[in-house]
Automatic annotation (TrEMBL):
SUPFAM superfamilies: Thioesterase/thiol ester dehydrase-isomerase. It comes from Streptomyces tuirus. InterPro entries: Acyl-CoA_hotdog, AfsA-like, AfsA_hotdog_dom, HotDog_dom_sf. Signal peptide: none annotated. Residues 1-89, 124-236 form the A-factor biosynthesis hotdog domain. This is A-factor biosynthesis hotdog domain-containing protein. It holds the Pfam family AfsA. GO terms for molecular function: transferase activity. NCBIfam families: ScbA_BarX_GamBu. It comes from the Bacteria.
Length: 246
């Protein structure tokens, strides 16, 4: 998940620094694909820093401004490729964003009820405050739990649910659906079709696509007001079974 968030942030930095996007530009990530070798990114190896190369392509302009671009990154540690990711980002001017979000811009002023979360272990977390799923009416389905006071997931007031929260919801849902602890995605693809609103229930639904030897794949989708918000497909390796010697 850190690779995906690094790509998202790098896209915004480069949009400003290299393509002249004004500081008040609004960004939306349209799609994201990440491939990771989890065992090569262990914190125990922190003395070996992770470096990355970035390529920007599919650059589209609107007049002299930036309309959208694709960012592709390769992450290396001690010269070895450990992860790669690519994502498409759209840029919106403040005026266009106000028109697009008309009636929603005051959403941060209205408190969002904090739903009770599922157990941290089920979600693959150690702290209850970090759980972003709430129980729903059937197995494999949850409600998005929105905590606008979370210092990491909501670092500033926002009129919609940040993409980082949806990334985390997908990972937690895949963990809960698969029962795999920890669920460390080796691949993740995600697409976003609309903003997730703060004050409307968002259902998180899962489907296990396959459990091949050594791995499990889960599709996670978010729906709000009957409309799709995002879809993500995550694949993680299953730990090798330990054979008894008796």
């Amino acid at each position: 998940m850190v690779v995906g968030e690094t790509l998202r942030q790098a896209s915004m930095v480069l949009a400003h620094a290299e393509f002249g996007a004004p500081a008040d530009t609004h960004f939306v990530m349209r799609d994201l694909t990440v491939e990771v070798n989890p065992s090569a990114l262990l914190l125990a190896d922190a003395d070996e820093p992770v470096e990355f190369d970035v390529v920007c392509s599919e650059v589209r302009r609107r007049g002299r401004g930036l309309h959208s671009m694709r960012t592709t990154m390769e992450f290396r540690r001690a010269g070895r490729l450990v992860a790669r990711g690519t994502g498409s980002t759209g840029c919106t001017s403040p005026g266009a964003y106000r028109r697009l979000r008309a009636g929603r811009l005051n959403a941060p002023d209205t408190p969002v009820p904090l739903l009770p979360g599922i157990s941290p272990r089920t979600a693959g977390r150690t702290r209850a405050d970090d759980v972003v799923l709430a129980p729903a009416d059937r197995p494999g389905v949850w409600h998005l739990r929105v905590d606008t006071g979370h210092p990491v997931l909501f670092p500033r007031p926002n009129d919609h649910v940040p993409g980082m929260v949806l990334f985390e919801a997908a990972r937690q849902a895949a963990t809960a659906a698969s029962g795999l602890h920890p669920f460390l995605p080796a691949t993740m693809t995600a697409g976003f079709t609309r903003y997730a609103e703060l004050h409307s229930p968002c259902r998180i639904e899962t489907e296990t696509l396959g459990e091949h030897p050594g791995e499990v794949t889960v599709r996670v989708s978010g729906r709000q007001d009957g409309e799709p918000v995002f879809t993500a497909t995550l694949t993680a390796a299953r730990p090798a079974r330990v054979r008894s010697l008796s």
